[in-house]
Design brief:
Shape: globular
GO cellular component, one term: cytoplasm
Helix content: 10-25%
Order of helices and strands: EEHEEEEHHEEEEEEEE
Strand content: 25-35%
CATH class: Mainly Beta
InterPro entries: Alkb (IPR004574), AlkB-like (IPR027450), AlkB-like_sf (IPR037151), Oxoglu/Fe-dep_dioxygenase_dom (IPR005123)
Protein name: Alkylated DNA repair protein (DNA oxidative demethylase)
GO biological process, one term: oxidative RNA demethylation
Largest sheet: 8 strands, antiparallel
Number of helices: 3
Structural class: alpha+beta
Cofactor: Fe(2+)
């Protein structure tokens, strides 16, 4: 995309990567996945995507108005489907999905145990031997949610895609409580995980359709050098949708 440069050199320097934590079968928290430089790159991209046309918008669902604001790249999500234009906003075409973001997602999925076929070329320690098929996943959607102070996200599941590929999310700015539940419904059991700026979270396999949400953020906890007030969550998905009418 014009105005947004892809990452150069090592995507994820090994010194920035800490041990992944399995939260549920197929669901993995990767603390510190993005170092300070990568966080700044992703934030810069989000700021470009957020400009109109097809920019940051307030999302209205049948249940009311969401407290987070959202912008999409690749395909536009609306309750409850995908389109090539912002059908519930200004009607503009969605900004293109950047190849580098798909590569970030594939490598992060590999680090979580969904091995990329090209992991041996990625230079990530421990990724080449992981099990899975992340290398086959053509990530094509990016959903950016902005949480101002006091915003939250109710329990929901990412079920509008036609692909079982793992979902990869990156956190920027304020820390939050990320509640990861089960596939049966919105109630317990669930596990609360603190996601900080630079963390990634991957869920697929038996946890692909698990309910999850953000009951609260922790205002004022963003790294000062990032220059972000609030929280950004960038969720990367495979749509599994083909053809001009998708």
């Amino acid at each position: 995309m014009e105005g947004v440069q892809g990452p150069e050199g090592e995507l994820f320097p090994i010194e920035d990567v800490r041990e992944p934590v399995t939260v549920a079968p197929g669901a993995v928290h990767l603390p510190g996945r993005l170092g300070p430089g990568r966080q700044r790159e992703l934030l810069a991209a989000c700021r470009v995507w957020s400009r109109p046309p097809a920019g940051l918008r307030t999302v209205r669902t049948p249940g009311g108005v969401m407290s987070v604001r959202q912008v999409c790249v690749g395909l536009h999500w609306y309750p409850y489907g995908y389109a090539r234009t912002v059908v519930d906003g200004d009607g503009a075409p969605v900004k293109p999905f950047p190849a580098w973001l798909g590569e970030w997602a594939r490598r992060t999925a590999a680090a979580a145990g969904y091995a990329a076929e090209e992991a041996g070329e990625a230079g990530e320690a421990g990724e080449a031997g992981a099990a899975g098929e992340a290398g086959k996943y053509a990530y094509d959607i990016g959903l950016v949610n902005f949480y101002p102070p006091g915003a939250r996200m109710g329990m929901h599941r990412d079920g509008d895609e036609r692909s079982a590929a793992p979902v990869v999310s990156f956190s920027l700015g304020d820390a939050c409580v990320f509640r990861f539940g089960n596939t049966a419904g919105r109630s317990r059991p669930w596990t609360d995980v603190e996601l900080r700026s630079g963390d990634a979270f991957v869920f697929g396999g038996p946890s692909r359709l698990a309910y999850h949400g953000v009951p609260r953020t922790r205002p004022g906890t963003a790294p000062a050098a990032l220059g972000l007030a609030g929280r950004l969550n960038v969720t990367v998905r495979v749509s599994g949708l083909d053809g001009p009418g998708r």
